[in-house]
Amino acid sequence: MARLRSDISLPDICLGIPAGPSSTLPMATPQKIALVTGAGSGIGRAVAHALLSAGWSVVLTGRRPDALDAAVRESGAPSERVLVVANDVTDPAAVKNLFARTREGFGRLDLLFNNAGVSAPGVPFDELPLDAWKSVVETNLTGCFLCAQEAFRLMKTQSPRGGRIINNGSISAHVPRPNSAPYTATKHAITGLTKSLALDGRAHDIACGQIDIGNADTPMAGKMKQGVPQANGTLAIEPTMDVRHVADAVLYMASLPLDTNVPTITVMATKMPYVGRG
To answer: Does residue 211 contact residue 250 with C-beta atoms inside 8 Å?
Structure first.
């Protein structure tokens, strides 16, 4: 197979996720191919590293080429198992190109981790700009739809057919935070999309599940350590968890045979205010 991204110089020593619980999970076969959206930072980067460490080949995509290249360098993975495609998941033509590049580079797709997401400023609902609402909906929901649709088209026609889609939901798929209508609405919608994909995928050996994540320690969650608004109007510091535990959960879901599925799983900091929120 031709080397992909020969312009990337990978370090001799792996600087990715250190050995931990994920090292005990089943190793993937060399033919396993994954695509991770929002792979340049946070949860997406951690999941891409975990998959690469487990032997998967991974397509990393996101809006920032420099962040994607940094994620690849940190993984220490051989370049023939990595493909970087800068991409905007809200652009249908760009998404089609992303999956065409995946097919051309690796021949198939076994896993799509729909992870790309944004949030809107935490302002009172009646002050929320329409553009902010549209931005969140287009990225979190429409972007997920576009990627899942292209994954269906590829997984239905490849041989052997089938694959798995894991959508990044959120604790907000169940309960909102104050002033979070766009994010919360899209994450509730992701739950409906996930269930529909799980049903529609049965005939084509396509499994679909959702991971709902609470307070993973990423740059986006840094504000949790400074204090965030609570339902009672106060500010409170919230506990976080190591993002590697999220990556381990995704890797577990991805390691299952296609006749087995995890429809939904919640991974969260134990003491965060979720159970009993409000």
So the answer is: yes
Whole-number Å distance between alpha carbons of 99 and 104: 8
Structure confidence by residue, pLDDT tens digits, 154-195: 999 999 999 999 999 999 999 999 999 999 999 999 999 999
Phi/psi for 261 (5° steps) reads -140, 150
Quick one: which of 176, 264, 164 has its CA closest to 212? 264
What CATH architecture is 29-268?
3-Layer(aba) Sandwich (3.40)
CA distance 162 to 98: 19
What positions carry a catalytic annotation? 183
pLDDT of residue 274: 87
Q: Is the pTM of this model over 0.85?
A: yes
Neighbour-count burial of 13, counting CB atoms closer than 10 A to its CB (0-12 exposed, 13-18 middle, 19+ buried): exposed
Q: Where are the chain's structural domains?
A: 29-268
Q: Give the rounded distance of the alpha carbon of 198 from its chain centre.
A: 17
Alpha-carbon 11 to chain mean position: 25
